[in-house]
Amino acid sequence: MQIKIYRGTHQIGGCVTEIRTATARIIIDMGENLPSADYSFQRQLEIDGVTKGMPDCNAVLITHYHGDHVGMFERVLPNIPLYMGSVAKQIYSVVQNALKNKLNKGNPEKVNNFKEFIVGKSLYFGNVKVTPYTVDHSAFDAYMLLIEAEGKRVLHTGDFRMHGGRGSKMPAIFEKYCKNIDVLITEGTMLSRTGEKVITEHELGLQADKLFRENKYVFALCSSTNIDTIAEFYNAAIKTKKPFIVCEKEFQKEILKIVTQNTTSPFYNFDRQKIYSYGHNLHEFMAEHGFCFLGRTNYITQKAIEAFPNSLLIYSMWSGYLDSNHPAFDEYKSTFVNSALTNGSRMVHLHTSGHASIEEIKQVCKITNARTIIPIHSERPEKLKNLGISGNIVILQDNQDFIVE
Ligand SMILES: [Zn+2]
Ligand SMILES: [Zn+2]
Questions:
Q1: How many other C-beta atoms are found inside a 10 Å radius of the C-beta of residue 136?
Q2: Which of 159, 222, 263, 331 is the most buried if burial means most Cβ atoms within 10 Å?
């Protein structure tokens, strides 16, 4: 069995991994470079038999719907099947639909043709057996993949963490299904973000609850698909009797409806009757009752903030976007936040990472008892070598062949 990382050995996102055996070739993730990342020196990624030439690939398996893992899906040649979790697929279809309607981009039709993972149910491609298991991540319905072939076991974690909604279940899942791994391909985002304090989503919810009680008008800036964080805000709003307002008419409600329809946990039970779509007609109601407004750095949210000066602005995204010294600095987001502050709002940063902390990565290496560990999705993969992990840590370069022995 051979492993090749086309992209992602020394960067966060843009991930594409290949597993090749005597009779099969599968690709894990088809990620686009993160928009804010300065990887402009790279040429567009082309892979023979996958994005160009004659199709020569059994399947493309997408771990989750973040653009840095699925963004290049449209470039996969027709006739090569793509796979994704079924709930993730529905959410991603809504996202692609919105892109199509708004910007005439996106391809919901191709997404609707994705095949679906079923947790724990193995898929077979030539002599390769792939078993998907749910992981905890800031994308809902995300997967890690256990690949078994030619007497070897490879675990590709995808993006994961252990401090979100399903975090507490993760050690047991690794313990039960992912022991004695020959090669662990693990995400290593946090290896270069050591200064970040990682709180649990539950702690985030407790802090949101407190802030909601102390502040009548609250805007929370958060990704529309970060379901765990949205659920914490929603549940805190219900508990503190604050109307929960979303900035779009249908888009966010549709995503939350998919989640509610496909889960049994009361934590994800978003009641449509209790979610208001923002409009000027709500101003009086909002002024009287207060609110938690789930917004984005967009025009509608900006107008709403202007209508309610002296609000609390909860910035629930990664802090790097607002850091002018960071390569991922996002001028648009920064200008947005600054204009809200000028307008009289007060800002707090309340966010937790979608990625495994260093302690969590160490824990996975230990539980899986991995003989060889290949870090990906990291700007500083070599830092994994200084953590006292017992496996053999291999730092690959993009496009380098690695033979599993
Ligand atoms: Zn990622
Ligand atoms: Zn991700």
A1: 23
A2: 159
